[in-house]
């Protein structure tokens, strides 16, 4: 009998405390025994999930890591997603691989722009969300104001499951509303040390707040939560260890096990006997000494066994998976078997790509992992012309991972890279230097955006590409791409060529 699975992600605005919460969840799950206090710019020991050089320098997560741990007979697969606003595309793809999410909100700031953006991504796939209001040991906004903002801005029913007794300098603990138990701050650091009071005398103000909350907000409904209509709200402090155990217990008790996944010709249920999965991320050079490439696969159905043959939708040629990996950030162990909801790493040399379906029997294709039209385009300038071959390999590698997109113009020799956010450009240059030993620069391209073009009739597409050859390029798969100077130009050209389709996304 396999242990139940909970595959979830943590989403937040930068600096809401996501990385610290990740560490404390790993401590609570027994995966690590010491949580390093993470400070901005990476001054102290970095979180175990942040390992790329640029992450260590800047104190932010720019890749998605997977951490698997067990607690009380349940296997938790935690996908740590980039919190920076420039990484919405990579985050989107990671959120396709989870069954639920934890939304972290700063008690002083409430709903911030990136939080809302990531929430909308979850809503697209009806991913149920547990909310964790963090940093209640510091000065924050009134509890009712925070709860009403979540309800109003996200159009969600909210159900407080715990309640902070004061905030900031008046913080006296967190009460579990169902039982009345209070976690109290202890010691010089005023952290939670596992001591719970049951006979706590509350102030009239707190008593009145809790009574009003009971009247004003709906009671918890597991079905409404799993449908994405209601969010249970927990209050706490990841840094001081308040509310972390309540949160992990909530994931165990309420978060859904592996769900059916959208696919063609029909959704795939986790109960189906044949092994299926999809690649949602490819990461090169997790171990720079070995120049490795790992494809992250979400297992959707069947029982995977080490050594079995699976057929990727991209190549159609079966591959034997001899060394599947389970992850703890950079640490790995060989997986002899895996079950629906698990994330396994498959070492490969460019045969697997983001969006690929892997299946025991061909004919299944998972959907909903698109490429997005880039919002920033730059020309790549190579400082050492003898390293052209290395540059092409590096750009293809990173395009395969989804860090950037690369376009090869029909006219001219300068390759163009496209990204969704500015920080991806820094990641590109940092990795070119650190991993590929290629010194390169970027300059503004004469284009502002890109669209994939297609037509029902080949002659219509050829006529368009012949006339607009100076603005045409190919992506790394050879698909035709129209490069436009402005978004206005896209609309203008689309009106002139009604038989040509201009797509801002391309299904992988």
TrEMBL record:
This protein's encoding gene: prfC
Entry binding sites for GTP: 12-19, 80-84, 134-137
Stated role: Increases the formation of ribosomal termination complexes and stimulates activities of RF-1 and RF-2. It binds guanine nucleotides and has strong preference for UGA stop codons. It may interact directly with the ribosome. The stimulation of RF-1 and RF-2 is significantly reduced by GTP and GDP, but not by GMP.
Keywords: Cytoplasm, GTP-binding, Nucleotide-binding, Protein biosynthesis
InterPro entries, per database record: EF-G-like_DII, EFG_III/V, G_TR_CS, P-loop_NTPase, PrfC, RF3_C, RF3_dom_3_sf, Small_GTP-bd
Domain Tr-type G as annotated: residue spans: 3-259
Protein name: Peptide chain release factor 3
A GO CC term attached to the entry: cytosol
Lineage: Bacteria, Pseudomonadati, Pseudomonadota, Alphaproteobacteria, Sphingomonadales
């Amino acid at each position: 009998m396999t242990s139940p699975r909970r595959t979830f992600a943590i989403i937040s605005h930068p600096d809401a405390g996501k990385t610290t919460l990740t560490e404390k969840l790993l401590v609570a799950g027994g995966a690590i025994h010491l949580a390093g206090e993470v400070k901005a710019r990476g001054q102290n020991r970095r979180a175990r999930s942040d390992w790329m050089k640029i992450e260590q320098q800047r104190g932010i997560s720019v890749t998605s890591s997977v951490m698997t741990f067990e607690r009380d007979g349940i296997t938790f697969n935690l996908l740590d997603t980039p919190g920076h606003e420039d990484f919405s595309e990579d985050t989107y793809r990671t959120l396709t691989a989870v069954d639920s999410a934890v939304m972290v909100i700063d008690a002083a700031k409430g709903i911030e722009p990136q939080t809302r953006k990531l929430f909308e991504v979850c809503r697209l796939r009806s991913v149920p969300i547990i909310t964790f209001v963090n940093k209640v040991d510091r000065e924050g906004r009134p509890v009712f104001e925070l709860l009403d903002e979540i309800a109003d801005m996200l159009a969600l029913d909210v159900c407080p499951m715990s309640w902070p007794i004061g905030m900031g300098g008046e913080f006296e603990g967190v009460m579990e509303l169902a039982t009345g138990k209070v976690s109290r701050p202890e010691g010089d650091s005023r952290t939670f040390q596992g001591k719970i009071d049951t006979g706590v005398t509350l102030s009239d103000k707190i008593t009145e707040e809790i009574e009003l909350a009971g009247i004003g907000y709906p009671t918890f409904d597991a079905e409404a939560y799993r449908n994405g209509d209601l969010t249970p709200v927990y209050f706490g402090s990841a840094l001081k260890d308040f509310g972390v155990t309540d949160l992990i217990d909530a994931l165990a008790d309420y978060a859904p096990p592996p769900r059916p996944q959208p696919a063609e010709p029909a959704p795939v249920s986790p109960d189906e006997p044949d092994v299926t999965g999809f690649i949602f991320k490819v990461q090169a050079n997790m171990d720079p000494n070995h120049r490795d490439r790992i494809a992250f696969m979400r297992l959707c159905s069947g029982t995977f066994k080490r050594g079995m043959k699976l057929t990727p939708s991209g190549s159609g040629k079966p591959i034997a998976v001899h060394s599947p990996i389970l992850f703890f950030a950079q640490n790995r162990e060989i997986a002899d078997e895996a079950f629906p909801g698990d994330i396994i790493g498959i070492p490969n040399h460019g045969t697997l790509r983001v969006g690929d379906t892997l299946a025991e029997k061909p004919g299944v294709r998972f959907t909903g992992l698109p490429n997005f039209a880039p919002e920033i385009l730059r020309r790549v300038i190579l400082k050492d012309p003898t390293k052209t071959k290395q540059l092409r390999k590096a750009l293809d590698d990173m395009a395969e991972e989804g860090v950037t997109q690369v376009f090869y113009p029909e006219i001219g020799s300068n390759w163009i890279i496209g990204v969704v956010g500015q920080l991806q450009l820094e990641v590109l240059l940092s990795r070119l230097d650190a991993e590929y030993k290629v010194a390169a620069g970027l300059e503004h391209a004469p284009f502002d955006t890109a669209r994939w073009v297609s037509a029902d009739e080949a002659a219509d597409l050829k006529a368009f590409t012949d006339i607009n050859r100076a603005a045409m390029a190919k992506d790394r798969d050879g698909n035709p791409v129209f490069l436009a100077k402005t978004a206005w130009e896209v609309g203008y050209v689309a009106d002139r060529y009604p038989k040509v389709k201009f797509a801002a996304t391309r299904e992988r």
